[in-house]
Amino acid sequence: MSLFVRIFALNAVGLVAAAALLLGPVTVSTPVLPGEALTVLGGLAVLLAVNVLVLRVGLAPLGRLGRAMADADLLRPGARAVVSGPVETAALITTYNAMLDRLEAERAASAGRALSAQERERHRVARELHDEVGQTLTAVLLQLKRVADRAPGDLREELGQAQEATRAGLDEIRRIARRLRPGVLDELGLLSALRSLAGEFTTHGLTVRHDLRAGLPPLTEETELVLYRVAQEALTNTARHSGADRAELRLRPVADGIEVLVRDNGRGLGTAVREGAGIGGMRERALLIGGMLTIGAAGEGADGVGTAVRLRVPVKPVVLLGAGR
Known about the structure:
- The chain is an alpha+beta fold.
- The chain is built from eight helices and five strands, in the order ααααααβαββαββ.
- The chain folds into two domains: 3-105, no CATH class; 186-325, Heat Shock Protein 90 (2-Layer Sandwich), CATH 3.30.565.
- 62% of the residues lie in helices and 11% in strands.
- The radius of gyration is 34 Å and the shape is rod-shaped.
- The chain crosses the membrane at residues 38-59.
């Protein structure tokens, strides 16, 4: 029954009851007698109670829809309002859910284009850093060596310092280029790239252990890149913000796909979690490959509970041609 019919029927019942009282044997004296007043007030109370009940039941789905709209987050897709209530309300909720489907699809498509453009730009900048700036610094380093070989003794120390500064700048350029575009991922695969990543973040203040299991299902290039970028961003956040001295990087197959986990023994997320561009970027990348990203407490650490970043990606089984023959 629609909300319109319900309210109309309730109002009609009230008007019919009032007309029956006026045309029936019930009369109202002047002044009003106590019994007559109780009868009128009792009938009014019954009508108001039924009205409140009908409106509460009829408008409850709208309240649930409002809460669902307030909690909607396109970075956490899949949540939908429950379709219930009168015909008009159910149609409104169905339309809202369909709108969310379109928005999530459009956001995923636009995010995919943006991230693809970002990766192309990273690749271009990394190539220019490696080929142009790197070669220039290498030439400067060789020139300094030739000058140092012919320079008098009192200048050799200063030239040596200039060589060390140039060599350090060259190493930094190469490190930035590797972070912009992990060549090891293209050349040696995901496992080697993650091992290299763990070694890169292992410094004097942070030790990163890795547990990278072989026997992974076949992965697309896009999936491997997303897994690498999520691990890279999680370790970056650990090194910059967590205050941890130990971290762990895991990659393993699970029942329905593959999972990458980065956790540390730092101070944890705290009570108020404000997601910045880094976490938002990880969620965007996870959506591109249909993955589920969760961020929570790791449950370890002496001074804090730590943080765990987990990305689980479903992987479709590969059907081999001719299997079963």
